[in-house]
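Deliverable D2.4 — example input (structure tokens):
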């Protein structure tokens, strides 16, 4: 058993609330740690620390701020194995998946090393007689991030790296399910040279989130998690006058055209549907083969691959996927699968009974494949967030396109085809934020930006890329007149009096 507190003003602290939550080992079902749940006093301590440190950090020149991230990237690489295990033992995913989690965050830290260039401003010489006009971007002050359990490394870094590089102080409220890694990241930031108070980690639940949303000293809030909470955080933050970007759930489709390379498509579906036990916001959860023959061939290829998935604890380095995160998540996924059967979908591969010897109390769910799913079914409408792939058969391209177009969510989508015309038409017409052409999980790289449409995202600026620099800064535009007229004799009259 170990205890996880908060990270405030450069060091770990226990917190004062007396409230804690259990942190489980998803592979065994055992409680392995407790995490402190912050109260208002804990949050205030983090804010006091941030307020004391931020002005000096904002006045630190951007090259020096960038150097902290250069060192931080080096430390992430040096400590990669340890960091990945910290994630896996609380999240449950394989160590390889956890390394990916750290690496996708690390890439955004590399991106913000460019902050001297990224934060350069615009200047117009001679906007009028002797008048220059320029816009500068200044940090918002204190930013906050509220993050989900499924990427405890990547998503905190997507938020705090640009926020801090822009000269802000940052308060991170990670998921209470896997809180160890964010605390370790904060320690490494201090080791990399970040002054105390610029990155504080406050662990907690709804009370901590509500404290952040109500606090007058927090200027901007970034949230990633489920859609109902994203909607709530966005509405509350906006009502309290804060800038907010909130990213929610997903139901990502992959269209498989009759001309697609089916081996490639089936392989892609295995990684995108079952990797990380389907607990990714960019997981593919709906496959849409076009035409009966494509559908039959696809099911034929997928079935043995799903049946032979190797499922195990993170300590099994050959496992393809691990357990899901909590007992509640497991129960929810299993009940949705039951519902799909009740509704008449054809459960071709049934993973409900999966048990692993020695890990009988772990939160495992075997890979599941549904065929003949229809858009009115609960399993189609709801984000299952587990290792469950639904096949919806479409007669033609237009019918296939219509499915993601009409779905509530709009995070990611993919098309598999050899036809450039179809791919181009699809990319142009689809109402979804991130599109893959023969790429199953089209997560944009750090220098582009990440964000969905429809109920997958609230707010207009995305994560990382140049959007993130805009989100964590505000514009000030200065109009100046030099010389002031001294050379020709000063004028002290209103311009309108001329
Ligand atoms: P979640 O919504 O349960 O929790 C996210 C955060 O909100 C956590 O920090 C949690 O403590 C807090 N929270 C939970 N309930 C709250 C409440 N009632 N009031 C205030 N705060 C609350 O999400 P999760 O289960 O941790 O993560 C999975 C979800 O996140 C999935 O829906 C997934 O699609 C989504 N997700 C989206 C993206 C994206 O970029 N769009 C990325 C990753 C995950």
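Example output (designed residues):
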């Amino acid at each position: 058993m170990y205890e996880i507190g908060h990270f405030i003003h450069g060091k770990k602290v226990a917190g004062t609330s007396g409230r804690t939550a259990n942190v489980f080992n998803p592979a065994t079902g055992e409680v392995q740690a407790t995490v402190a749940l912050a109260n208002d006093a804990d949050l205030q301590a983090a804010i006091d620390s941030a307020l004391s440190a931020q002005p000096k950090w904002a006045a630190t020149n951007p090259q020096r701020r960038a150097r902290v991230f250069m060192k931080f990237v080096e430390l992430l690489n040096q400590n990669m194995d340890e960091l990945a295990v910290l994630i896996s033992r609380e999240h449950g995913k394989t160590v390889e998946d956890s390394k990916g989690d750290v690496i996708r965050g690390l890439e955004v830290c590399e991106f913000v090393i460019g902050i001297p260039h990224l934060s350069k401003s615009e200047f117009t010489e001679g906007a009028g007689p002797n008048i220059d006009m320029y816009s500068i971007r200044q940090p918002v002050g204190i930013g906050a991030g509220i993050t989900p359990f499924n990427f405890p490394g990547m998503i905190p870094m997507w938020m705090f790296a640009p926020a801090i590089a822009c000269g802000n102080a940052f308060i991170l409220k990670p998921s209470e399910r896997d809180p160890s890694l964010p605390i370790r990241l904060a320690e490494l930031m201090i080791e990399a040279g970040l002054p105390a108070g610029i990155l504080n980690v406050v662990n907690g639940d709804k009370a901590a989130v509500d404290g952040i949303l109500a606090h007058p000293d927090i200027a901007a809030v970034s949230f990633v998690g489920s859609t109902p909470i994203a909607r709530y955080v966005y509405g509350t933050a906006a009502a309290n006058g804060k800038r907010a970007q909130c990213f929610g759930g997903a139901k990502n489709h992959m269209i498989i055209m009759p001309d697609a390379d089916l081996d490639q498509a089936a392989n892609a579906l295995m990684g995108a549907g079952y990797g990380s036990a389907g607990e990714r916001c960019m997981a593919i959860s709906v496959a849409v083969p076009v035409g009966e023959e494509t559908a039959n061939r696809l099911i034929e290829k997928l079935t043995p691959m799903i049946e032979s998935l190797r499922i195990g604890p993170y300590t099994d380095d050959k496992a393809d996927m691990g357990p899901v995160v909590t007992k509640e998540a497991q129960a929810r996924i299993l009940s949705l699968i039951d519902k799909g059967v009740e509704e008449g979908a054809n459960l071709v591969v049934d993973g409900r009974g999966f048990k692993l010897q020695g890990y009988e109390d772990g939160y495992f769910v075997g890979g599941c494949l549904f065929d003949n799913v229809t858009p009115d079914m609960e399993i189609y409408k709801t984000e299952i967030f587990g290792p469950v792939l639904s096949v919806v058969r479409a007669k033609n391209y237009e019918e296939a396109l219509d499915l993601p177009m009409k779905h509530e969510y709009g995070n990611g989508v993919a098309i598999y085809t050899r036809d450039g015309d179809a791919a181009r038409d699809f990319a142009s017409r689809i109402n979804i934020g991130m599109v893959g052409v023969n790429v199953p999980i089209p997560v944009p790289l750090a220098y582009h930006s990440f964000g969905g449409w429809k109920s997958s995202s609230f707010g207009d600026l995305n994560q990382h890329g140049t959007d993130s620099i805009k989100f964590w800064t505000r514009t000030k535009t200065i109009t100046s007149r030099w010389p002031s007229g001294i050379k020709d004799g000063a004028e002290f009259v209103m311009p309108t009096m001329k």
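Residues 461 and 470 are 8 Å apart (CA to CA).
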